[in-house]
Design a protein that fits this description.
- Helix content is 75%, strand content 1%.
- With 447 residues, it is an all-alpha fold.
- It folds into 4 domains: 37 residues, no CATH class; 158 residues; 176 residues, no CATH class; 35 residues.
- It has a two-stranded parallel ribbon.
- Helix 10 runs antiparallel to helix 11.
- It is globular and about 75 Å long.
- Pfam families: DUF2157.
Length: 447
């Protein structure tokens, strides 16, 4: 029997046609009623997808409405705040928290299957916690700074994700962690680890839409925190940030296939792979430039290493080991496109070698240009052969960026640059038109 996840979505007209045809097949004795039911169960009308989209838009609108109502109430209270006594202020400070918790209790007790109610309750409680902390602090003049406020808010907000099962709250917490990392450059990004059990729970319960969106927010937050924590001015890891970013990108790429499987090829459905590919593509382009500072001795810098730098180095080592384990375990299952992405890991190894033996910057510039040139051509070829537009455009975009980077290279004459740009642009358009026609002819042959 087909599960909801395995059902194929077709248009409403085609689903209606299939119902009519299967009915006539049954009447003529070509198939029996049980076979007809099994055939229809393999497909779902696009209206089902529409209902799902409507549900998501409903959750979004309800959450937005809840945020606006909460903000309006806070503004009204703030306008009259000075005229209230201390006891009134205390009661009003806890009132949003009590109301939000009551709504959460109602959702868990009476609407446990309503995702809209649970998401709204989680968002309301998350902001009620923050409002109550700030109002009580202001009323009783409790000493503190923004970092402590955000940290307390984060610690009190984490249980909401697990009790209410709210993916929207997880996204808000990801933003809060990112705020802390950007403000203080401390290893607050380790808090992303506290979100992993919830992500695993979503994975086990086959809540793929919620899992995908939660992963996108959490991974973007993690990437931004680690890159910012290692690449800012005067950081001891500044010279290493390019290698740390590339190792993290390769590790995310491997993690995506390790957890989501090799069958999941959707861009939005596998965030670790998609984000890993974007990091690999961008960082590999950075290697094509001269002037990139090579690693230096970490322990000879004026600024000492802090806990944040040590934890980022630990993450770098974990990523390095993880990629090696992935390649050694799945080497036989990796396709050509997988190898194109994972080959970028060679630059991480070269960076470590360069740290000890000083192999020179020319090696990185020449090899990275060759790597992108060959890799992008291979991806374009695979995209055409497999009729996969995403791979084809990925290869074209990667190649175009390489050409664009060389456009600003002062060593190449203007005439050559102009001819190359016109040729690449024309090839881009022709390849897409030809590919679309090929796809259309395949669809018509199928019909």
């Amino acid at each position: 029997m087909a599960t909801e996840h395995n059902k194929k979505s077709i248009s409403r007209e085609r689903h209606s046609w299939l119902q009519q045809e299967s009915e006539s097949w049954k009447n003529t004795g070509l198939i029996d009623p049980d076979t007809q039911r099994q055939i229809l169960q393999q497909y779902q009308s696009a209206s089902g997808t529409h209902v799902q989209q409507h549900s998501w838009s409903n959750i979004l609108l309800v959450s937005l409405g809840a945020l606006l109502i909460g903000g309006g109430v806070i503004l009204l209270l703030a306008h009259n705040w000075e005229s209230f006594g201390k006891m009134t202020r205390t009661i009003l400070s806890f009132l949003p928290l009590v109301l939000a918790q009551s709504y959460c209790w109602y959702g868990i007790q009476y609407k446990p299957k309503s995702q809209a109610v649970l998401e709204t309750a989680g968002v309301l409680l998350f902001f009620a916690v923050g409002a109550s902390i700030s109002l009580i602090s202001q009323t009783y003049h409790i000493y503190g700074d923004l970092e402590r406020f955000l940290l307390v808010w984060l610690l009190l907000g984490l249980p909401i994700v697990y009790t209410i099962r709210s993916a929207t709250t997880l996204m808000l917490l990801s933003g809060l962690i990112l705020w802390l990392c950007f403000m203080e450059r401390e290893p607050y990004w380790l808090f992303y680890g506290a979100l992993v059990p919830y992500l695993y729970k979503l994975y086990r319960s086959n809540s793929r839409n919620l899992l995908a969106w939660a992963c996108w927010f959490a991974i973007i937050g993690l990437l931004s925190s680690v890159v910012y924590g290692s690449a800012y001015y005067a950081s001891p890891l500044d010279h290493w940030s390019i290698y740390i970013s590339l190792a993290l990108g390769c590790a995310l790429y491997a993690l995506g296939y390790w957890t989501f499987g090799f069958e999941n090829k959707k861009f939005w459905g596998n965030p670790p792979v998609s984000l890993g590919l974007m990091v690999i593509g961008f960082v590999s382009l950075m290697f094509t430039w001269y002037g990139r500072t090579l690693p230096v001795d970490l322990w000879q810098l004026e600024r000492p290493m802090t806990a944040n730098e040590y934890t980022i180095l630990g993450l770098f080592v974990a990523c390095f080991i993880g990629v090696i384990l992935f390649i050694s375990r799945y080497a036989k299952r990796l396709s050509v496109s997988h190898w194109v992405a994972l080959t970028s890991f060679v630059f991480v190894i070269l960076g470590i070698i360069d740290f000890y033996f000083d192999i020179g910057e020319h090696i990185f510039v020449v090899l990275s240009n060759l790597y992108i040139l060959v890799g992008s051509v291979i991806l374009m070829y695979l995209g055409i052969q497999q009729t996969r537009l995403m791979i084809l455009n990925g290869g074209l975009i990667w190649f175009s960026f390489l050409v664009l980077f060389r456009f600003f290279d002062s060593d190449i004459p203007f005439m050559a640059k102009g001819i190359i740009f016109i040729g690449v642009g024309a090839a881009f358009i022709v390849a897409n038109i030809w590919f679309k026609k090929k796809q259309q002819s395949k669809i018509e042959e199928g019909e």
